[in-house]
Amino acid sequence: MELKWSVCLLLLGLSWSLALVHAQDEGDDLDVEDDLEEVGEDSMDGEEEKPPSPPPAPKVTYKAPEPMGEHYFAESFDRGTLDGWVLSKAKKDDTDEEIAKYDGKWEVEEMKDTKLPGDKGLVLKSRAKHHAISGQLLRPFVFDTKPLIVQYEVNFQTGIDCGGAYVKLLSQTPDLDLDQFVDKTPYSIMFGPDKCGEDYKLHFIFRHKNPKTGVFEEKHAKKPDVDLRTYYTDKKTHLYTLVLNPDNSFEILIDQTVVNSGNLLSDMTPAVNPPAEIEDPDDHKPEDWDERPKIQDPEAVKPEDWDEDAPAKIPDEDAVKPDGWLDDEPEYTADPDAQKPEDWDEDMDGEWEAPQIPNPKCETAPGCGTWERPMIDNPNYKGKWKPPMIDNPNYQGVWKPRKIPNPDFFEDLHPFRMSPFSAVGLELWSMSSDIFFDNFFITSDRNTADRWANDGWGLKKAAEGAAEPGLVNQMMTAAEERPWLWVVYVLTVALPVVLIIVFCFSGKKKPAPADYKKTDEPQPDVKEEVEGEGEQKAEEEEEGKEDDEKQEEEKKSDEDDVPEEPSPNEEEAEGDEDEEEEEDDGSGEKQEDDVLRRSPRNRKVRKD
């Protein structure tokens, strides 16, 4: 019983805790934007200032990140202008004249629902337009002995239907003209998110130069194993980072968490190095080459009793036409209530006929029309005979052309040493607008990149986290998007209530000691055993029963050995003693003594 009440108290405590969490979530919703607007404001009303109350959340103030350490490019757009960036004036080839121009609009502004006033970024403003903008690096990046770290932030403020948000690291060439930046402008690396339909991608592509032919070929990294859907739909700012090391290893991170990694030599498609051997294009399969592993047994003969003409179905000869079958009545008849339409033209529409309806006479009959026996499976049907299949003694296996040395083979063990790049650019087509870019950074030092990320994206993450709604509001929002969650919520709330009712108010009443006297139900030997030794009590009762049986057997054997029977006076005296013992059982002290006497641990064998 005490255990049951402990469970009840535990359930009540959990319910109260949930209620407190609910109230706290509703009362502690944070508005970081309002807090930030109050920073620096002085009280002008002259009223006596009240003692400050503890803030509901830490205040986050924005400070533009400053590049520290060695870097090649750093842009936070907090100046509010596009100084240092070049808008493309080119036209895209092989495209309709109406959409060939790179006339998509770019603006430097804050996010629509910013949590950090003063934080500005580059925003793609146009839908269904070609956009191209680029910026020059402080100095070209040369792939030698230092790693490459590229990172920037993206926020799909209105979601993304079809479009990209990737960057291109434009190769350093004599012909590079940022005014004519187009999709065919040579680049060394393309990196970033891209989405169309339900295909969520995170590109990492580098252009590798064939050392034999000098032709560049795109190499694509394998797809990440994680689900990228959330990064495109949650309307939060995410940090995309590419780390490329001189040992050809690479890492792709989102929000400083690795989502993809690999090696340029083994995890790119197509492979950097071609195979050493290829199939001979001039080799052809011989005409007598036998690729059949099984053939029909040429020595097999069709059995004489095999009937190929036997039908698969035959009429059931045991079937009998049901009584009341209407042979002369059709299943369907013309509708007597139908009338020819007034605009019916027999010359154009032909002779009018009333529509067919089920024959009403057939509704009460087993059937109408000509009765036919039902069809059943033919027990003698075997189908067309075919000889059994056996192993082909002439089987030569699947033919493959022979291998020859690859004339285009080369081995590049250092694909990291790709073409240097001197500019970064965004060349995009998007069906969604208001894509927010911020805090571009290119360096060769990981610590410098992490410091820049913490000073920029770290503030956004803290502000967005502080402004997130409480748990209850998040649950309500999730239920609006997924109505089936209401069932989960109802069960979560109702289950503790049901358990409290079951455990607290439906317990079985423990019988009083006096109730055992009215029945033959066994009573516990000792109170301490009832409370703390449930299992031991059962074992002891079984041992007690065995001892009682032994005592009865010994008593009978002793009585058989006595030659004289007791006198009537002695029988009366024994009867009086038995009555006195029954009376003693009614009293409390005698009852406890009797219980202890009957306990297996205190019982001693009587001797007559």
UniProtKB/TrEMBL annotation:
<dbReference type="GO" id="GO:0031966">
    <property type="term" value="C:mitochondrial membrane"/>
</dbReference>
<feature type="disulfide bond">
    <location>
        <begin position="162"/>
        <end position="196"/>
    </location>
</feature>
<feature type="region of interest" description="Disordered">
    <location>
        <begin position="265"/>
        <end position="370"/>
    </location>
</feature>
<keyword id="KW-0496">Mitochondrion</keyword>
<comment type="function">
    <text>Calcium-binding protein that interacts with newly synthesized monoglucosylated glycoproteins in the endoplasmic reticulum. It may act in assisting protein assembly and/or in the retention within the ER of unassembled protein subunits. It seems to play a major role in the quality control apparatus of the ER by the retention of incorrectly folded proteins. Associated with partial T-cell antigen receptor complexes that escape the ER of immature thymocytes, it may function as a signaling complex regulating thymocyte maturation.</text>
</comment>
<dbReference type="InterPro" id="IPR001580">
    <property type="entry name" value="Calret/calnex"/>
</dbReference>
<dbReference type="GO" id="GO:0005509">
    <property type="term" value="F:calcium ion binding"/>
</dbReference>
<dbReference type="Pfam" id="PF00262">
    <property type="entry name" value="Calreticulin"/>
</dbReference>
<feature type="region of interest" description="Disordered">
    <location>
        <begin position="26"/>
        <end position="64"/>
    </location>
</feature>
<feature type="compositionally biased region" description="Acidic residues">
    <location>
        <begin position="538"/>
        <end position="551"/>
    </location>
</feature>
<dbReference type="GO" id="GO:0005789">
    <property type="term" value="C:endoplasmic reticulum membrane"/>
</dbReference>
<feature type="compositionally biased region" description="Acidic residues">
    <location>
        <begin position="26"/>
        <end position="48"/>
    </location>
</feature>
<keyword id="KW-0430">Lectin</keyword>
<dbReference type="InterPro" id="IPR009033">
    <property type="entry name" value="Calreticulin/calnexin_P_dom_sf"/>
</dbReference>
<dbReference type="GO" id="GO:0033162">
    <property type="term" value="C:melanosome membrane"/>
</dbReference>
<keyword id="KW-0449">Lipoprotein</keyword>
<keyword id="KW-0143">Chaperone</keyword>
<feature type="compositionally biased region" description="Acidic residues">
    <location>
        <begin position="325"/>
        <end position="334"/>
    </location>
</feature>
<dbReference type="GO" id="GO:0036503">
    <property type="term" value="P:ERAD pathway"/>
</dbReference>
<feature type="signal peptide">
    <location>
        <begin position="1"/>
        <end position="23"/>
    </location>
</feature>
<dbReference type="GO" id="GO:0030246">
    <property type="term" value="F:carbohydrate binding"/>
</dbReference>
<dbReference type="InterPro" id="IPR013320">
    <property type="entry name" value="ConA-like_dom_sf"/>
</dbReference>
<feature type="region of interest" description="Disordered">
    <location>
        <begin position="510"/>
        <end position="608"/>
    </location>
</feature>
<keyword id="KW-0812">Transmembrane</keyword>
<keyword id="KW-0256">Endoplasmic reticulum</keyword>
<keyword id="KW-0479">Metal-binding</keyword>
<keyword id="KW-0597">Phosphoprotein</keyword>
<keyword id="KW-0564">Palmitate</keyword>
<keyword id="KW-1015">Disulfide bond</keyword>
<dbReference type="InterPro" id="IPR018124">
    <property type="entry name" value="Calret/calnex_CS"/>
</dbReference>
<feature type="compositionally biased region" description="Basic and acidic residues">
    <location>
        <begin position="515"/>
        <end position="537"/>
    </location>
</feature>
<dbReference type="GO" id="GO:0006457">
    <property type="term" value="P:protein folding"/>
</dbReference>
<keyword id="KW-0732">Signal</keyword>
<keyword id="KW-1133">Transmembrane helix</keyword>
<comment type="similarity">
    <text>Belongs to the calreticulin family.</text>
</comment>
<feature type="compositionally biased region" description="Basic and acidic residues">
    <location>
        <begin position="587"/>
        <end position="597"/>
    </location>
</feature>
<keyword id="KW-0472">Membrane</keyword>
<feature type="compositionally biased region" description="Acidic residues">
    <location>
        <begin position="343"/>
        <end position="352"/>
    </location>
</feature>
<keyword id="KW-0007">Acetylation</keyword>
<feature type="compositionally biased region" description="Acidic residues">
    <location>
        <begin position="559"/>
        <end position="586"/>
    </location>
</feature>
<feature type="compositionally biased region" description="Basic residues">
    <location>
        <begin position="598"/>
        <end position="608"/>
    </location>
</feature>
<protein>
    <recommendedName>
        <fullName>Calnexin</fullName>
    </recommendedName>
</protein>
